[in-house]
Amino acid sequence: MSGHSILYLGRGEFAADYLGELETLPCCTYLTRSTSFELPEDASYIVDLILLEVGPMISQSGQSLTDLINHLAPYPVVALTRKEHEHRGIAAVRAGAQAYICVDDISVEDQDAAFDHAVKRGRMQSRLSSTDVTVLSILRNINDGVIVVDDVGHVLDINPAARTLLGISPRMQPDPTWEQTFCCVDENGDSYRNSADLPLMRARMGEKYSDQVAIYRTPEQPDIALSINGQGLFDGKRDLIGGVITFRDVTESRRKTQELEKRAQFDELTGLANRSLFAEQLTRAIGRSQRKSAPLAALFIDLDRFKSVNDTLGHDIGDALLRQVAERLQSILRVGDFSGRWGGDEFVVCLEDFGEAGNAAAAAQKLLLALSEKYDVGNSEVYVTPSIGISMYPDSGNTAERLIKAADVAMFEAKKRGGGRFQYYSTALNAKLEQREELEAGLRHALVRNEFVLHYQPRIDLATNRLIGLEALLRWNHPRFGLLPPARFLPILESSGLIHSAGEWVIATACRQLASWQRRFELPDLSITINLSPQQLLHNRLVEVVSRSLADTALDPGCIELEICDGDVVQQRTAELETLRQLRRLGVRLSLDHFGTRDVSFESLDNGFVDSFVLDQTLISDIEENKSHQRIVRAAIAMAQGLDIEVAAEGVETVRQLDFLKSCNCDLVQGFLISRPMQSEKISAILRSEIAGTSLLSRGMP
Ligand code: C2E
Ligand code: MG
To answer: What share of the chain is helix, strand, coil (3-state, %, to 5)?
Structure first.
């Protein structure tokens, strides 16, 4: 510490020996005393620091403290007071003094440091450009915290707001290491590795930044999150001489945001982690597993026949069941393992630290048994079984996304083998996963690359044996795999949300094609059936798309039949019902597809929404010998006649099936017996022969 020449202004209000003490301070090389509160006329020597007694004498001198300190500028002033009058010191700092000390309550070292600090600060202030001086004096009095450091990191100024925010007492003057400890933790609570990231350091290096969130951490109080702006301080010659930061407390607003974020990370129904959080946790678990060289398992769980629970018992029961499944999952899992809800009736689990790979199977078996036990939901006893797919890190994949997909593929395999079982992901399934990924990627471009095509399957009116309509069936002309049926890509379209744009394309294309056939072959009554996925009913664009297609083609809306699934009507959910209502208002016909496959069907017919239904293939395929199916089909047709609803049967492959349907007075039939779905050109040929009276289709007909 270099020696300073000190001017003492005061009338000796402090004990006389204080002055004596001062002379012995290492920083003090020269001491002059004045009792007049005036700068000595003869200022031939250099004053480094003024010590100013702040007491009643000042007011007696007739000047205000602010005037006096301003008058003493540009010399740095340290106010002297006693502990019992500490407020005077604080007032002096507010009035522009660099610091204050209580002469009866300070060690020699601290006093020395305080003087030295005031000198440095004064020197810097005198070098500051005039704009920076103004800016700093404004900053000192704002509500934001302000800290000024010199070019080596000494804290020169902490404004009152900063002291209040950080809980720093007015007298405490940070030591030179403070720069390293002040907000040395970033917003995630991790220490900055690089000291150039420290807020004060950044500012005094001349970097201008805003909204750096950092944590102020001290043992005495809870963490405070600060949002900090910083910049360098320059002298009149634009030389960097320090830095200033301003900051505000964002602890509360961050807590609120974090709470919202947290809410966005958890599934509302079950309280489990949602997709994104689970994937994040899995990624971290993979990191741990990699470091420990220990295996990790991802489980994909899907409830068998959950849809039928929803359809038969209603959504509330379905929801309650999902909540119970989540509770069971959580109660079975060991500490350290975690679970999430992937969507609908799909759950995901991560198992860690299970020792040998085979133990994952034991865990899956345990889950399988527990989830298969009876559920008491409302007044119902519900039984469901899970299908579980297991993928292992690192064998099945080394990213969270890949592991989940692999487990999903394995789950699908478990389902295919009858459900209620678990299945490991294997190399044989690998090919399937790769194909699925390729399909998923390809589907995103299928529309723009014109790879979708519609095939059309004729529908015959059994009363007249004439072709009266066509069902439009989507195909994907895949560049590598060739023509793919909907079963291969429809689930991906639906789960990726691409179903909306693909569905729009189907509607527009089918309507255009029908309009063209109607005109070309003068068949104004020819109708088209278009399949809708359940999600499409939830999208309000659907009504707009249908009405635009009608307007574009000038088709009679009664020639368009939209096929929806049973559950969509039965569930009576407001959004879907509103869409159905609007569609009906457009004049298009609505038809229930796959009738007879779900547990409830009859009541969906009685609500006036549908004009027809399609008996599902599974009912028809064994109708020749399955007496129960025969009874169902007969009853369904009889009931439909009573309700004035049209009945179509699909999947008719044999003459005997056709005969049976005729005997029940089924209205329409469709199936390989009559014609397979075909490209539009072939349908054109069929239509031509139909109007020429040389039906190509009646060959198979009895
Ligand atoms: P779906 O509506 O029940 O369509 C009838 C399905 O049965 C078609 O399969 C058709 O090729 C097939 N089929 C017709 N006659 C027979 C027969 O005699 N025997 C047998 N075994 N099968 C027959 P496809 O084209 O593979 O379509 C499957 C399902 O994909 C459709 O079932 C429909 O639910 C859905 N789908 C097709 N196109 C679309 C579409 O554009 N949008 C939506 N959302 N779904 C579509
Ligand atoms: Mg259909």
So the answer is: 45, 25, 30
**Domain locations in the chain as residue ranges:** 4-125, 131-254, 266-425, 441-693
Please tell us whether the domain made up of 131-254 is placed in CATH 3.30.70.270. Answer: no
Give me the count of residues in the chain.
Answer: 702
**DSSP H or E run through 550:** helix 541-553
Which CATH architecture does the domain made up of 441-693 adopt?
A: Alpha-Beta Barrel (3.20)
pLDDT in tens, 229-276: 999 988 878 889 899 999 999 999 988 888 887 778 899 899 999 998
Task: Look at ligand 1, atom 45, and give the residue with the nearest C-alpha.
Answer: 531
Q: Is the CB of 457 under 6 A from ligand 1?
A: yes
The pTM of the full predicted model, rounded to 2 decimals, is: 0.56
Atom of ligand 1 nearest to the CA of 536: 44
pLDDT given at position 601: 46
Helix H or strand E encompassing 311: helix 306-313
The closest-lying atom of ligand 1 relative to the alpha carbon of residue 616 is 3
- The topology under which CATH files domain 4-125 is Rossmann fold (3.40.50)
pLDDT tens-digit map of 445-458: 998 899 999 999 99
State the DSSP code for 168: -
680: tokens are: 């539009």
CATH superfamily membership of 266-425: Reverse transcriptase/Diguanylate cyclase domain (3.30.70.270)
Q: Which pLDDT band holds residue 625 (cuts at 50, 70, 90)?
A: very high
Structure-model confidence comparison of residues 659 and 604, the more confident one: 659
| 473, 504, 566, best to mutate for ligand 1 pocket (most atoms within 8 Å of CB) | 473
